[in-house]
Design goal:
The structure is a homodimer of 172-residue chains. Chain A is an alpha+beta fold. Chain A contains seven helices and five strands. Chains A and B meet through helix 1, helix 2, strand 1, helix 5 and helix 6 of A and helix 1, helix 2, strand 1, helix 5 and helix 6 of B.
């Protein structure tokens, strides 16, 4: 799929078909994440692939009861690893959140390109996700997303005008 | 350009031609960023477009002397705004870093698709960038990138194997 078509066409999908995700498409989606750039090429992120029904139900609970997450045949949980990351982006923060976000962005675009849906989930309790998946203390949970065939075609959500997002020369 | 070709073909460009960036291509690149998803669709980010030579030189100093940044005709500085963002991703962090990162990822992929080069810059001093561009205290600088026609074709940088990045079922 054309890049701009993928960028403009991707939606947050909150209804999924029960149809399984073929292994080759899952691999394609994960491969897009694999090619994400990262500070110093550290690749300080991991993706957990969850297909077990009971585990998915526990992740719904950890995500404040957002039931559609478990409707998808696959749930991906994306983690960042501060100890492996560039420690001082801008002199003040670890790169692991940025690096993991790039990987997820690649993944969600590629999912759309192969006919699958995703939905960035930000509203969850990290400690509860950590407990469900035995994620160690030094690994941070950045986001999760369901992955499956969409059972809805949401409208495009409006964006701010370019003029409200882009500033020329200096901030004020 | 095909999405996977853009993902696999994008490089960090550290040599630029003096050729100006056409306005329509700059707009295309910024439009790709504009369509980035964000938590609650808050779009808590801004992109500063810098073309003034003196300002670019000051940004080089703020980026620890990485001279190639000013070689490009345009420098983009991407900011995140915590006060506008979803405050509790995973129950523990503001979404502004994630949201800004998605916008930058779209932008760097689209730049490659239209024949332009970029390079995510993480090694800079936020306070110095803030001073050069009059960025307020409550706005965070997430990254910057030069934007221009590449004057090099870097080799692909190796990535970890999928097996080292993807985990099935639970972390350990």
């Amino acid at each position: 799929m054309d890049l701009m078509d993928a960028i403009k066409g991707r939606r947050s999908i909150r209804r999924y078909k029960a149809t399984p995700v073929p292994d080759d498409l899952l691999r394609e989606v994960l491969t897009a994440a694999r090619h994400a750039p990262s500070a110093d090429n550290a690749q300080p992120w991991r993706i957990l692939v969850i297909r077990d029904e009971d585990t998915k139900r526990k992740l719904v609970a950890a995500a404040n009861g957002q039931k559609f997450i478990a409707q998808a045949p696959v749930v991906l949980v994306i983690c960042g690893i501060p100890d492996e990351a560039f420690p001082t982006v801008g002199g003040y923060m670890s790169s692991h959140v940025i690096d993991a976000s790039i990987a997820i962005d690649h993944l969600t675009l590629m999912a759309h390109a192969v006919g699958l849906g995703t939905c960035w989930i930000a509203w969850f309790k990290e400690d509860n996700v950590r407990e469900v998946l035995s994620i160690p203390e030094d690994v941070r949970v950045i986001a999760m997303t369901p992955l499956g065939y969409p059972d809805e075609i949401p409208e495009r959500i409006p964006r701010k005008n370019l003029e409200d997002l882009v500033i020329y020369d200096r901030y004020q």
